């Protein structure tokens, strides 16, 4: 296949954006995540370097994606490793909570990931919002607490800072700022 495969992991609706629970109702959190996911899918569809977009989730997508891989509940890193082995291609992993994502952000990241894994931190440089992995690149996923430090420590990893990829939504302030 020519082009990158984008893989977007997302939790089940009831488990999404629980850190926003003090500020948003379950229905509001579900609507917010659905809107952000739809935005990410639209951007991926418009990105010339992305050949297909696949959702990794407990439930199949309603629309916007070219395929679905069922999340079997093994934890994000194990699910991503399993999907990567199954897909065996140039792989872009990015989260669904990127409301400012643009085609330019995606294309910039993919252009930089020619022979190495390229990672994008969140704007606080704590988490990891996206990883571009050329087929065959040596890399092990390390999502979780302080994932940016864990991913950055891997040999041969390139750090890419792109505004739309760095702005994720984890706290109420992220919706305002």
From TrEMBL:
<dbReference type="Pfam" id="PF01983">
    <property type="entry name" value="CofC"/>
</dbReference>
<keyword id="KW-0547">Nucleotide-binding</keyword>
<keyword id="KW-0808">Transferase</keyword>
<protein>
    <submittedName>
        <fullName>2-phospho-L-lactate guanylyltransferase</fullName>
        <ecNumber>2.7.7.68</ecNumber>
    </submittedName>
</protein>
<dbReference type="InterPro" id="IPR002835">
    <property type="entry name" value="CofC"/>
</dbReference>
<keyword id="KW-0548">Nucleotidyltransferase</keyword>
<dbReference type="GO" id="GO:0005525">
    <property type="term" value="F:GTP binding"/>
</dbReference>
<dbReference type="InterPro" id="IPR029044">
    <property type="entry name" value="Nucleotide-diphossugar_trans"/>
</dbReference>
<dbReference type="GO" id="GO:0043814">
    <property type="term" value="F:phospholactate guanylyltransferase activity"/>
</dbReference>
<keyword id="KW-0342">GTP-binding</keyword>
């Amino acid at each position: 296949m020519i082009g990158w495969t984008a893989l977007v992991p997302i939790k089940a609706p009831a488990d999404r954006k629980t850190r926003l629970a003090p500020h948003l109702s379950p229905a509001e959190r579900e609507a917010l995540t659905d809107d952000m996911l739809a935005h990410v899918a639209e951007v991926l569809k418009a990105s010339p370097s992305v050949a297909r977009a696949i959702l990794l989730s407990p439930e199949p997508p309603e629309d916007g994606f070219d395929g679905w891989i069922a999340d079997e509940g093994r934890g994000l890193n194990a699910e991503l490793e399993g999907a990567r082995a199954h897909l065996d291609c140039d792989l872009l992993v990015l989260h669904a909570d990127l409301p400012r994502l643009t085609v330019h952000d995606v294309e910039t990241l993919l252009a930089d990931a020619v022979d190495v894994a390229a990672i994008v931190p969140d704007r606080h440089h704590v988490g990891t919002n996206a990883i571009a992995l050329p087929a065959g690149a040596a890399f092990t996923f390390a999502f979780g607490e302080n994932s940016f430090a864990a991913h950055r420590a891997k040999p041969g990893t390139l750090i890419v800072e792109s505004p739309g990829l760095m702005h994720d939504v984890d706290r109420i302030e992220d919706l305002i700022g």
